[in-house]
Structures are given as structure tokens and as C-alpha cells.
Amino acid sequence: MHNPFRKKQSILHTLLLSLIFATSLTAETIPFSFFHDKPRSTAKDFYIYRFLDQNISAQEARALLGEVNNMNWKLFDRFADKVDDFAFERVKYCRHLAPERFAGKDSDCIMVGLTPYKATRLPVKILEEIADNIAFRYPKQAALYKAIATRDFRFMTKLDPRLFLQVFNQTGKKYRESWFNHPLPPKLLVTLSGYSAFNTAIDKIVRDPKLDKLQHSLLKFDSSKLSAESNFLLGINALKQGHKEVAIWYFKLSAKKAWSNFAKDKAIFWQYLTTQDSKLLHELIEKSKDINLYTLFAHEKLGTFPKNIIVTIDPKQPRAPFDITDPFIWHKLYKAFKRRDFPDQKSKEAAALQLNSNDTQPHVARLLYSYKENLHYYLFAYRRYIHTLEPHRQALILALARQESRFIPTAVSYSYALGLMQFMPFLAKAVAKESGMKDFRYEKMFDPKIAYRFADIHLDFLEKHLFHPLMVAYAYNAGAGYTRREIIQNDHLFTSKRYEPFLSMELLPNAQARRYGKKVLANYIVYARLMGLKDVTLLTLLQALTKKHRISDF
Fold first, then answer.
1. Distance in angstroms (rounded) separating the CA atoms of residues 189 and 194
2. Half-sphere exposure of 227 (CA within 13 A, CB side)
3. What count of Cα atoms within 13 Å lies in the side-chain half-sphere of residue 409?
């Protein structure tokens, strides 16, 4: 009998064999030939970035332009140094000009480099002259500069709503605090609510304590056209001003408009915080299958624990069927798997399990994960490399790794963070030097053993000053300096006021760190529970956050 699945197995087997013999990098110097069989990916971008730092020809650099997966400015600047092209050099030059040096520059250079934020740092007269000089070729940009130069809120309220929002959203925190902190006229508020850019404006208004007069403008209006996140923030804003009923109205609308479980759970959770109605805790557990800070809070309050958790995947082969330290092998396998058309879920699972071993469980989990199935993988991947560490450190490393890379050893981010623990290259080099590693190459960050070792060293530094997993998570993501300056030393965050520490966790201005911290803290709680750490509870950790002397010595 014809077996179509057997044919798919052989296709996968052939792909694996071809990948095993793929060209790999064995030296720090990267030859041009290295790129000929490498698929477009963030990993390839990182190698191109490094290649461009070598002594290469302009012809070689130009040949790689078409191979880039994501052209960020960091990579663009490297190309500009190598391709011997005036246009590239000019764009780089104009982008890096200081604000005061744009006077007298041509209009194209101004368009490329004089951002609205930079424009705010120019004297009014010079900015107006620049606007006049580019008005013929770039009238919209000239109007933007003119508006910035006015520094007059009443004048700006009479601008086209799109221009008003552009000035507000793009000029920076200091400019907004200096010139925009005035009540929005009701008619303008209604008009602005019809523009998607107003969602960005609401985020900036509610999360900046110095925009208090603007915040008072947002108490009650028709927000039905705005996003779930905007309605959630409007609820937070109403709570801060003591209007609980208005806040509940916004939270309910946010939950209704939310498209993700996380956003919906957040809105329901805040309804609970506002009303203390325990029915909402039951709703979080019964209706949401997501595992996040809000559902874990509900579970702990009600004495339960999520059941939709997978900690291991069976059956396993004795050895990994491919090199887990080669980013291009995994990229090709993943793409090939996603292109295949499976007749049903069972055949898809069977195909993925061909790759399963102790070292490839994260890869199989990545292939099998489905948002709709509501199953969550909390793997103990590569735990043999950290099993001698004390349990708290193990749980924290696993919590970070799950959020950083889903335990994929060869993960590379758009900013070129590397490996299981997503170390930035500069930090990886610094830790390598501190640890006494003399033969360090960036490829070592694709080795789970090295990645965990570096994470442990870095956490030794962070936990000298930060005594709470949430603060450690913020520092791991945004840096210890940011955490000290913008969080620990910020009098508006993590106080003993009402709705804390949840209020501060939502008002943190850094969007990436804000979400990351909540995710890692939830991961930490799950891993601590799975490891039997009875002294670790979410409620205890949340309570500690309202006393800064207990979370840091910065």
C-alpha cells in the first residue's frame, strides 16, 4: 500500500543528510565563499555584519547587499563604509550629523538626518530657516519643522490632526513635557480619537507623570475606535485620578477589543483589582488558557496551578540528528517543515518527533507549538549544564532562556543578540574576558553550555545589587544602568500606594522591558513551582516590590 508519510520521512532524511555536510565556520575570519549556500536570515545578517568589518573589497560588499534579510541602520553603516558608493556615504553622513550642523545643508540631507527629535534641539530661528529652505521640495516636512518651532500649544491645536499627532509622538519626552501639558479641547479630543496615531499618543500621555494636565483630559470620551491597549491605559489613567467606575468601563472595553489572551487577561485582572470581585479570578482561570502573570495570580489566590504545561517531549533519540550549534541548519529545517502540508495533526507530530532528542526538544516544541491549542512548553532544556547551581539560580536562568530564545541555541535577534541567552556581542566579549576564556569566538554563544555559563556569570553581577527576579529581568533586558536610573531611583515607580506594584509594572515607559519583565517573572514562578521551591510564591514576590530597600541596594 502506498504510504505518503513514508515519502515525507525520506524527504526529511535527505534534507538532514545534506545539511550535516553544510559549510560551517571554523575560524574567526569569514571568507566570502562562506555565504554562497546560506539562506537569508538574521544569522546571515550577523555574519555579513562581521564580514564587513574585515579587509574586503567594495565588489564583495556590493555582492552581499541583495543577501540581507533585514537592513537595519547598524548594518547599513557598515555597508556605507565598504561599498564605495556616494549615496550610501551621504546617507550615513547626514544621519549622524549633530542638529546644529544642518544649517545650510541641502534638503535631501536634511530629510535624511534631521529627525523631529533633533529639530527640537535647534534654536527657533534656525529651524524656521531650515523649514523655509526645504519647503519647495518637501512641504510636509517643512510644515512639521514650522510646527515644532512654534512651541505654542494653542497654535498646535489648530493644526491638521495628523500633523498635531506627528509633532506630539515624534519630538521626545522633554519637548512634550515643556509644550504639550495642557488640557486637550473636547472637540479636538473627539477628532484625534479617529486616528490610529492617537493610540501612540495615549501611551505617552498616560505613562508620563509630568503630563498630568493632559491626563485629566482623557477621563471620559468615546474610545471605541481606539485599540485594546489604549482603552486599558485609559482605565489606568482613570484609576490614578480616583474614578473607579470610569476605569471599569474602559477595562471592559479593552477586554472586549483584545485579540490576544494576554491583553484580555490583563484587562480582566485589572477589573478584579478595581472591584475585588473574586468571580473575575475564576473567569481568568476558566476562560483563559494562557499562562501569564495575571492568570498565575488568580491560580495562586484560588489555590490551583495550570495543568496545560508540557515539561518534556517523548520519545527521544539517543543523539541529536543535526548540529544544534549551527544556525543555518536549524533555519533550513524550520522553513522546510513549515512549508510542508500535513494531512492532520498526528502526521505533523510524527514528522516533528523524528528530530526529537534531549538536545532538540526546544526545536521540536517550536515546530509543534500552536497558539490555538493552548499548550505551553516549560522545558528544562540543557539543565545538565546548570544542575549544580542553587535552585533559585536554575529557575531564573530557565525563566530568562525561555523568554529570550525558547531555548533555541542558535537564536539571533535583529539587534544581533546571540544564542540561548541572547547575549549582545559586546557583553559576550566582556564576560569572556572576565571568565578568562582566551579563545572566544561569537559562535561559542551557540553552545548551550557556554551560554548558560555566561548567563550565570552575568547574573552574579546583577544579583549583587538587585534582589528581586523582576528587577533582574529588567536589568537583563534593558541594562543595569537603566534599571537603577529609571526604575529604582524613580520616585513614581514601585511605591506603597494603592494598586502597587501592578501600577508601576504597567506604567514602565520602556515597552520592551515592561513586557519582558512580566513574562520572565511568570516563567520564574512556574519553574520554581515545578522544581518544588515552596518558599517562592507570586504573592510574596509582588508584596516585596513595594519596598525598594528589599529589591535593590542601588
1. 9
2. 15
3. 25
C-alpha cell at 425: 556581542
Query: In 3-state terms, what secondary structure has residue 377?
Result: strand
- Average pLDDT over every residue of 277-295: 96
Helix 279-287, helix 261-275: angle, nearest 10: 170
Residue 387 DSSP class: T
CA angle 489, 494, 499 (to 5 degrees): 160
The fraction of the chain above a pLDDT of 70, given in percent, is 95
> What pLDDT, in 10s, does the model give residues 67-102?
999 999 999 999 999 999 999 999 999 999 999 999
Under DSSP, is residue 412 helix (H, G, I), strand (E, B) or coil?
strand
What is the band of 244 on the pLDDT scale with cuts at 50, 70, 90?
very high
Question: In sequence order, what are the residues at sequence separation of 6 or more whose Cβ sits closer than 8 angstroms to the Cβ of residue 319?
Answer: 357, 359
Q: How many CB atoms lie within 10 A of CB 432?
A: 21
- Judge contact between 362 and 379, C-beta under 8 A: yes
On the question of pLDDT at 15 being above 60, the answer is no
Q: What is the pLDDT of residues 134-189, one digit of tens each?
A: 999 999 999 999 999 999 999 999 999 999 999 999 999 999 999 999 999 999 99
Question: Would you say 521 and 541 are in contact if contact means Cβ atoms under 8 Å apart?
Answer: yes
Cβ(226)–Cβ(198) under 8 Å?
Answer: yes
| Crossing angle of the two packed helices 261-275 and 293-302, in degrees rounded to 10 | 50
The percentage of the chain sitting over the pLDDT mark of 90, rounded to a whole number, equals 91
Q: Round the CA-based radius of gyration of the chain to a whole number and report it.
A: 26
Three-state secondary structure call for residue 309: strand
Q: Which of 83, 43, 79, 37 is nearest to 59 (CA)?
A: 83
Once rounded to an integer, what is the mean pLDDT over residues 105-131? Answer: 98
Give 29-66 as a DSSP string. Answer: SPPGGGGTTPPSSHHHHHHHHHHTTSS--HHHHHHHHT
Show Cβ contacts of residue 550 under 8 Å, excluding neighbours closer than 6 positions: 467, 468, 544
Q: How many CA atoms lie within 13 A of 25 on its CB side?
A: 28
Q: Do 47 and 38 form a contact (C-beta atoms < 8 A)? A: yes
Q: What is the mean pLDDT of the chain?
A: 94
φ/ψ (deg, to 5) at 552: -165, 155
H helices of 421-490, where? 425-435, 448-465, 469-478, 480-482
Q: Which residues of 231-265 are buried (b: 16+ CB within 10 A; e: fewer)?
A: bbbbbbbbbbeebeebbbbbbebbbebbeebbbbb
Distances (CA, A) of 492 to 99, 327, 548: 32, 43, 12
